């Protein structure tokens, strides 16, 4: 770490995180491509919503939810459920960048801290004037969840972070979402593969 002697395979990811804000190295302008074709507009902070005081939750989409094909399906399903339940939410769009978790896990603490400080500055700006206990963020990514909730407080990022399953569970309990069982003919069998 002190010598920045990382395996060569990690160098590309580090450069992509530093220059584009995601491990895929895709342009930040593509951060809302996952929302194309939805029957509604996904509210973006600073465009459709002035600040986080106007919404119940900021949805931190994360890099996988933005750029990974399977992750995009989850992201779309989450916002469809939020819309159905009437939850007031918004996303950061291009204002979001990687939490830095991949860099920290790979041992590049400097890059992690750089991304963390950038995100905390952005989030504190978004939540400026919003009292503690109402600075609510939901995310579908377990890595983003852990970083935002447990590691960002070290950088003065104090937010109430929830995994999307926690919120969806509450919405079902409150009767705002009603699960509809699929008919047996539409169910796919679960298959397990031995390693």
Question: What labels would you give this structure?
Answer:
single chain; 195 residues; alpha/beta; 4 strands; 41% helix
Give the topology, please.
Blueprint: H1 8-20, E1 57-60, H2 62-67, H3 69-85, E2 89-91, H4 101-105, H5 109-126, E3 136-139, H6 142-151, E4 160-163, H7 164-173
Parallel strand pairs: 1-2, 1-3, 3-4
Short summary of the structure?
With 195 residues, the protein is α/β, with parallel strands linked by helices. The protein has helices spanning 8-20, 62-67, 69-85, 101-105, 109-126, 142-151, 164-173, and strands at residues 57-60, 89-91, 136-139, 160-163.
What does this structure look like?
This protein is of the alpha/beta class. Helices cover 41% and strands 8% of the residues. The two termini are 33 Å apart.
Helices and strands, in order, run as: HEHHEHHEHEH
Strand order, largest beta sheet: 2-1-3-4
Q: What's the average pLDDT?
A: 91
N- and C-termini, Cα separation = 33 Å
Low-confidence stretches: none
Strand content: 5-15%
The radius of gyration computed from the alpha-carbon positions, rounded to a whole number of angstroms, is 18 Å
> What is the 3D form?
globular
Helix fraction, binned, reads 40-55%
Q: What profile does the largest beta sheet have?
A: 4 strands, parallel
The number of helical segments is: 7
Describe the oligomeric state of these chains in a short phrase: single chain
- Kindly state the number of beta strands: 4
Secondary-structure-based class equals alpha/beta
């Amino acid at each position: 770490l002190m010598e920045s002697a990382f395996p060569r395979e990690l160098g590309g990811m580090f450069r992509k995180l530093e220059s584009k804000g995601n491990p895929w190295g895709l342009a930040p302008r593509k951060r809302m491509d996952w929302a194309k074709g939805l029957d509604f507009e996904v509210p973006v902070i600073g465009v459709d919503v002035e600040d986080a005081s106007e919404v119940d939750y900021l949805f931190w989409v994360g890099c996988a939810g933005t750029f990974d094909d399977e992750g995009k399906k989850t992201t779309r399903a989450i916002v469809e459920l939020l819309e159905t339940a009437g939850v007031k939410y918004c996303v950061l769009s291009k204002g979001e960048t990687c939490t830095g978790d991949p860099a920290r896990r790979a041992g590049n603490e400097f890059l992690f801290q750089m991304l963390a400080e950038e995100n905390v500055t952005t989030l504190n700006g978004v939540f400026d004037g919003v009292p503690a206990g109402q600075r609510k963020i939901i995310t579908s990514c377990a890595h983003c969840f852990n970083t935002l909730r447990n590691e960002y407080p070290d950088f003065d990022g104090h937010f109430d972070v929830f995994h999307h399953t926690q919120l969806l569970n509450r919405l079902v309990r409150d009767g705002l979402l009603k699960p509809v069982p699929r008919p047996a003919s539409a169910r796919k069998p679960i298959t397990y593969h031995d390693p």
